[in-house]
């Protein structure tokens, strides 16, 4: 297979072994990269592609994030690519949102991005090369009801990556995001299975269908590659046109 993206031998940490993280990890492995996947859930890690190295760690703490970066760098002999694909969502109106809900979504979705990005950024800036790709969301832009903390975490993420991108641009480190629309994974399945919900969301998407995890792999691998050397600070909406309407 030709390695047009130049991902062969790249040292990759994917944070998150869920639907999107596991699909991306498999695509990186398929492209010849060496991959560590970090997640708090042992069941998710157990079902990963066998070419991928699993790392069980809670990424809701500074110690957990620092440990994940250090362990991945030790296992791989350095770190070229960080992919952030952890996330949680609890859909409730703002008036019913508890402090605990707020804290959990901001910590897992946004603070872990800051902590992992910072720890990986130290290695990448020192090495003079790095690619960071984060999973934002169409919720970073649209005001979906019942998405207060989730939308705030993704809007914050969009701005965080822009500042990281600017600070590290002269050091060969790019920072970008992919922003999916609805993709059926453990994060969304329960909601999509409610009566009429899947049909309603599908009707809002100009492409006429929900996304798949496979829709994310091309855009994410491109942003993680040497081919994207002059692309930084972008949020690439991978949403079948959802944010156009
Ligand atoms: N699925 C979608 O429709 C969709 C749409 C837009 C954005 N996203 C974003 O894409 C990313 C991946 O989502 P997904 O659909 O694969 O979800 P998922 O639920 O399948 O996977 C999320 C993973 O994060 C892990 N995780 C949660 N808390 C953690 C913690 N404290 N430490 C370590 N790991 C933890 C979970 O164990 C799970 O494996 C998330 O950031 C999500 O917000 C998803």
UniProtKB/TrEMBL annotation:
Its signal peptide is none
Q: Which PROSITE patterns match?
A: ADH_SHORT
Keyword list (alphabetical) reads: Oxidoreductase
Query: What Pfam families does UniProt report for this protein, alphabetically?
Result: adh_short_C2
Family matches, as SUPFAM superfamilies = NAD(P)-binding Rossmann-fold domains
The EC number of this protein is 1.1.1.-
What is a GO molecular function of this protein? oxidoreductase activity
Record's protein name: SDR family NAD(P)-dependent oxidoreductase
Naturally occurring in which organism (per UniProt): Arthrobacter flavus
Upper classification of the source organism reads: Bacteria, Bacillati, Actinomycetota, Actinomycetes, Micrococcales
């Amino acid at each position: 297979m030709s390695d047009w993206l130049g991902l062969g031998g790249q040292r990759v940490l994917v944070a998150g072994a869920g639907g999107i993280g596991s699909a991306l990890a498999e695509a990186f492995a398929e492209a010849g990269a060496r991959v560590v996947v970090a997640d708090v859930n042992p069941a998710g890690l157990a079902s990963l592609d066998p070419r991928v190295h699993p790392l069980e760690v809670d990424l809701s703490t500074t110690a957990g994030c620092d440990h994940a970066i250090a362990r991945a760098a030790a296992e791989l002999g350095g770190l070229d690519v960080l992919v952030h694909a952890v996330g949680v969502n609890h859909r409730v109106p703002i008036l019913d949102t508890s402090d605990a809900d707020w804290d959990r979504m901001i910590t897992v979705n946004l603070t872990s991005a800051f902590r992992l990005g910072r720890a990986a950024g130290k290695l990448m800036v020192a090495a003079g090369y790095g690619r960071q790709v984060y999973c934002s969301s169409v919720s970073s832009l649209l005001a979906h009801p019942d998405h207060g903390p989730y939308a705030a975490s993704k809007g914050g993420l969009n701005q965080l990556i822009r500042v990281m991108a600017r600070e590290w641009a002269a050091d060969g480190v790019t920072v970008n995001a992919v922003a999916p629309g609805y993709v059926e994974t453990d994060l969304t399945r329960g909601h999509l299975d409610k009566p009429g919900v899947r049909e309603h969301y599908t009707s809002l998407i100009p492409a006429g269908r929900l996304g798949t995890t496979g829709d994310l792999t091309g855009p994410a691998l491109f942003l993680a590659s040497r081919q994207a050397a002059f692309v930084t600070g972008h949020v690439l909406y991978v949403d079948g046109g959802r944010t156009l309407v």
